Amino acid sequence: MTKSELIEALARRQTHLAFGDVELAVKSVIEQMSHALAQGERIEVRGFGSFALHYRPPRMGRNPKTGEAVALPGKHVPHFKPGKELRERVNLALQAEMA
Amino acid sequence: MALTKAEMAERLFLEVGLNKREAKEFVDAYFEVVREALERGEQVKLSGFGNFDLRQKNQRPGRNPKTGEEIPISARRVVTFRPGQKLKVRVESYAGPRE
Q1: pTM for this prediction
Q2: What CATH number matches the domain at B5-93, 3.30.540.10, 4.10.520.10, 3.40.50.11540, 3.60.15.10?
Q3: Does residue A71 sit in the same domain as residue A89?
Q4: Residue of B nearest to A41 (CA)
Q5: Which pairing describes strands A69-72 and A59-62: parallel, antiparallel, or unpaired?
Q6: Given an 8 Å threshold on Cβ–Cβ distance, is B3 in contact with A79?
Q7: Which GO terms describe its biological process (chain A) (predicted)?
Q8: Which chain B residues are closer than 8 Å to A48 by Cβ?
Q9: A56 in the same domain as A32
Q10: Containing structural domain, residue A12
Q11: Is B28 on the interface with A (CB under 8 A)?
């Protein structure tokens, strides 16, 4: 499912909303989430999961072309932890497929 | 502080002009549509943010940490998140606590 398919699915579901508003709302939610993480803020959505930043310490890397050693600075990376309901539903669907 | 569904809905009310009830319903529907796609075994790709992928894990041996008893961990499907390039770049430079 892509962002445009998500917009279409939500427009079919929330029929009282104008298509343009659904588009704006999806973009707003994605921007709010990106912005929160860029500020180092966590995101918590019960039943879906939480997002937080993990720190990666500085390390020595290598330029793959020249083989030269380069110092890479520490950085933060986004991390997602699926919530209980999401974990269970995704897994139950698998059990049903296998049965 | 963390970004929550209530805050996302408030922003949709202020920025997109949905009324409060519509905004709350929209945010719930948003995460539900993503969960349903993952439940169907479908990857979700939100360009600019990242991809939610599904990974199949085989059965592996486990142990009850309390009793030490051996119990197999059943085969399961799990959700993983791969941040997109744009989100990685925005988050990388966050200079906050190194956790």
Answers
A1: 0.90
A2: 4.10.520.10
A3: yes
A4: B2
A5: antiparallel
A6: no
A7: DNA recombination; regulation of DNA-templated transcription; regulation of translation
A8: 31, 34-35
A9: no
A10: 1-41
A11: no
Residue A95: which pLDDT band, with cuts at 50, 70 and 90? confident
One-letter amino acid of B76: R
Residues A48 and A89 grouped into a single domain: yes
User: What integer pLDDT is reported at residue B7 of this predicted model?
Assistant: 97
Pair A62, A92 in one domain: yes
Query: Per-domain residue ranges for chain B?
Result: 5-93
Residue B75 to residue A4: CA distance in whole angstroms: 32
- CA of B67, closest CA in chain A: separation in Å? 24
- A50 and A21 share one domain: no
Side-chain half-sphere of B51: how many Cα atoms within 13 Å? 11
Q: Identify whether residues A31 and A75 lie together within a single domain.
A: no
Per-residue pLDDT, B99: 56
B 37-96 near A (Cβ less than 8 A): 37-50, 52, 54, 56, 75-81, 83, 86-88, 90-94, 96
- B37-84 tens-digit pLDDT: 999 999 999 999 999 999 998 889 999 889 989 988 888 899 999 999
Q: What is the mean pLDDT of residues A5-21?
A: 95
Task: Determine the distance from the C-alpha atom of residue A52 to the mean position of all C-alpha atoms in its chain, rounded to a whole number.
Answer: 10
Q: CATH code at A55?
A: 4.10.520.10
The residue type at B38? L
Q: Which two tokens stand for residue A93?
A: 């669907």
Asked if the Cβ–Cβ distance from A28 to B38 is below 8 Å, we say: no
Nearest to A93 among B12, B39, B86 (CB): B39
User: Considering chain A, what is the average pLDDT of its residues?
Assistant: 94
Q: Which amino acid is at A23?
A: E
